[in-house]
Amino acid sequence: MSVDDLATPCNFVIFGATGNLSANKLIPALYHLEVAGRLPKRMGFTAFARREWDQSQWTEYLKQVLQEKLGDYFDEGVFRSLSSRFNYVRGELHDPQSFAQLGQAIATAKTGPSGCSIYYLAIKPTEYAAVIRNLDQAGLNEPRGQQRIVVEKPFGEDIESALLLNEVLHKHFAEEQIYRIDHYLGKETVQNLLVFRFANTLIEPLWNRNFIDHVQITVAEEIGIEKRADYYDKAGALRDMLQNHLMQLLAVVAMEPPPAWEADALRDEKVKVLRSVRPIPRRAVHAHAFRAQYGPGFSRGVQVGGYQDELGIEKNSVTETFVSAKFYIDNWRWRGVPFYLRTGKRMAKQMSLIALRFKYPPQQLFRETPVEVIAPNWVLLSIQPAESMHMEIHVKKPGLEMDTRVLALNASYRKTHEVPLDAYETLLLDVIEGDRSLFIRFDEVEWAWRVVDPILKYWAQEREFIHTYPAGTWGPEEANRLFDSEDHEWRNEV
Ligand code: BG6
User: Fold this and answer.
1) Most CB within 10 Å of its CB: which of 142, 167, 216, 336?
2) Residue spans per domain, the chain
3) At residue 1, does pLDDT exceed 50?
4) Which one-letter DSSP state was computed for residue 473?
């Protein structure tokens, strides 16, 4: 369906329009969709935020955000057409009166009063429930079925609050209206992983415990917590990244082929994986999970403070900015294969990588030669900064000796003229077009919480101490204690 075939005009409301997520992801993504001509002609945007601004101050802010993000790519013409779609509404998330004003603004918007609305919650999770209730009470979920609500992660802060939040959502919105977003599912490599696995007969027969020794999933960031102290200090890396993005990646790596390429068929397979993750008993939390916090150090050669020096963070905070964990999936395909996950802020470099190490060949045929031991093969799927896929295999070094070297077969698939997009472009377009395939069903959220909940509960009681690592490094050595075998080590390079 072309976006201009949308039956009714549509209004897209961003709650938290002046916040971090909006500036870093949503606004740039909308700009790219405008450039690509993919925003429906009759779509208007409402920026809802607390700042005492008028329309011109909002427009000025929008320009500043885009100029900063896009640099030379910023185009005045595109900016003008995007900004002319926007309406600024000043309001409080907890105040029903503000929602009445929002209703009026939507009704008088160019997009017309009876169109569909999309509500995007780019706000702190603690404020979701108030907005959901206020939207309904202000009649902004009428007529039922035409409105959509996009809920960002983390969905709740533990299993109990996630269940409660879901209850509130379902009280006011039907499941078909709800888009639980995990933007990692919109990333190219993640989607390509499904193609790599299920469209290549070459790969799938090897993708199991008979051939794979272990799996590593790393999402390392160079940035610190930016200006998100208030949210981050309550969340920490486990809630901010591992429970959602990394667990989704694990599910996509480990899932069985779905019976059909349909949203629910895919989700069913992911849920089966998450349900099969071996529960971590209390006494085993230390053997399965490790946390740490960045101290002062260097990022890209520039001296930076530690987590506790960040504005708004207490000196005794034990919130983790790094987490590594080991999980087992107790099913026929994966039993006994460790899945090592790690993520952190202020790490040595920005790198998101899924790495699968294969087992050693059953016979070390070259023992008496300079080769001695053949190193195992790897499949490396890089999500960012560059999207790429590599398979490392051994070849003979040309020459008189029987010696080998590792050659990486490069299956990278982006052609040089193809512009990389962030995941949000894909996902925002899906919301506009009503496609929920890449969004999360509640049972996925629930089972992911069940996996990490014992770790959360255990850490909540250990409030005295946290390991630290210098900013700009790969995290503390102690994180390696999770490895099952002495020859396991993190892949820090593609
Ligand atoms: C968000 C987290 O979900 O993902 C942030 O809240 C993190 O803390 C971000 O920086 C990373 O996303 P990306 O797409 O830049 O890897």
Assistant:
1) 216
2) 3-152, 185-418+439-482
3) no
4) B
Q: What residue has token string 């001296």?
A: 303
| Ligand 1 atom showing the smallest separation from residue 225 Cα | 8
pLDDT averaged over every residue in the chain: 92
Q: What is the dihedral of CA 178, 172, 444, 123, to 10 degrees?
A: 70
Q: Which atom of ligand 1 is nearest to the CA of 383?
A: 16
**Residue located nearest, by CA, to atom 15 of ligand 1:** 221
**121-125, 302-306, 372-376, 468-472: lowest mean pLDDT where?**
372-376
Q: CA dihedral defined by 226, 227, 230, 235, rounded to 10 degrees? A: -20
CA of 14 to the centre of ligand 1 (A): 18
Q: Is 307 exposed, middle or buried (CB count within 10 Å of its CB: 0-12, 13-18, 19+)?
A: buried
CATH code that applies to domain 3-152: 3.40.50.720
pLDDT surpasses 70 at 5: no
**Res 7 pLDDT > 60:** no
Q: Is the pTM of this model over 0.90?
A: yes
Give residue 251's identity as a one-letter amino acid code. A
Residue 181 pLDDT > 90: yes
Q: Is 240 in the pocket of ligand 1 (CB under 6 A)?
A: yes
Residue 371 has pLDDT above 80, yes or no: no
Mean pLDDT, to the nearest integer, of 211-225? 97
Q: Is 197 exposed, middle or buried (0-12, 13-18, 19+ CB in 10 A)?
A: middle
Assigned fold of 185-418+439-482: Dihydrodipicolinate Reductase; domain 2 (3.30.360)
Pairing status of strand 378-384 against strand 388-396:
antiparallel
**Residue 245 among the catalytic residues:** yes
Using the mean position of ligand 1's atoms as its centre, give its distance from the Cα of residue 420 in Å.
17
Catalytic residue among 172, 183, 214, 245: 245
